[in-house]
Amino acid sequence: MPDIHDIQIFPNGDALAAHAADLFAQAARDAISARGRFTVALTGGSSPHKTYERLAQAQEIDWTSVFIFLGDERFVPYDDERSNYGMCRRLLLAHVPIPAAQVLPIPTDTATPDEAALTYAETLSHVFGQPSDGPSPALDLILLGLGDDGHCASLFPGMPTLHVTDRWVVAGPPGTLPPPVDRVTFTFPVLNAARQVVFLVNGEKKAAPVRDIFEAGAGVDQHPAAGVQPTNGTLTWLLDEAAASLLTKK
Ligand code: 6PG
Predict the structure, then answer these.
(1) Whose Cα sits closest to atom 8 in ligand 1?
(2) Strand pairing of 183-186 and 169-172?
(3) I want to staple 72 with a disulfide (CB 3.0 to 4.6 A). Which of 96, 109, 185, 244 is the partner?
(4) DSSP 3-state assignment of 131?
(5) Range from 3-7, 37-41, 202-206 carrying the lowest mean pLDDT
(6) Is residue 189 within 8 Å of 212, Cβ to Cβ?
(7) Can you tell me the distance from the alpha carbon of 166 to that of 185, in angstroms, rounded to the nearest whole number?
């Protein structure tokens, strides 16, 4: 079970986004000074919107040294309004001076979602210089949202994708929540190999899964986000008051 001490609570979504943007900028500075580049996976959904809008104005980030990935994708064209990458591009990536070759979304123009998953694992393999049948690469930062049903990335309750240990990226059917389109997602081995994982969680619909994960011992099959516990990295849950409202041990 993730630890209650991993939680930070903010009065509202704006304060949460301001902190998340600072945290992103700090992670970028640390990674670039330690390793010369910053590898980060963005999340889809609506929770990160304010954070991305702030990051789009962040002058202090050296975007020329940033490599952008997506932790999961809906298998639709990038200009479809349901596309996670499309949203990230609109709110953030179109506004910052990042080299195009360093923006690495999950492909959605392959014949099948499975093929997209294999292709994306090869992209990771190439960027990290590690074979895709070996240990997972350690991204510097992975941002995640929490679904109202406890899912994260596109790892949905009760699905076989939750138990994949020998692939970095997998395809899956539509989840338990909309939109009802096929998904491609990082697996737990990649999420848990990250140097830093940060959940961005807003709104009262998240209050019950947050309580279940932190206080009722909900397991991975019930609330997949409970399975995110980086092996060597740090885990931070940023909640607004509404998402934290059912916690009793704040
Ligand atoms: C997706 C996401 C997903 C999201 C959660 C939370 O493709 O749907 O990546 O994991 O983060 O569903 O979504 P909201 O922020 O919209 O509640």
Answers:
(1) 45
(2) antiparallel
(3) 185
(4) coil
(5) 3-7
(6) no
(7) 14
Distance CA 203, CA 142 (A): 21
Q: 154 in ligand 1 pocket by Cβ < 6 Å?
A: yes
74 Cβ inside 6 Å of ligand 1? yes
Please give the distance of CA 44 from its chain centroid, rounded to a whole number: 7
Closest atom, ligand 1, to C-alpha of 73: 7
pLDDT at 153 over 80: yes
Query: Global pTM?
Result: 0.98
110-147, pLDDT tens digit by residue?
999 999 999 999 999 999 999 999 999 999 999 999 99
**Average pLDDT, rounded, for the chain:** 96
Is a pLDDT exceeding 80 seen at residue 181? Answer: yes
In terms of Cβ atoms closer than 10 Å to its own Cβ (0-12, 13-18, 19+), residue 99 is exposed
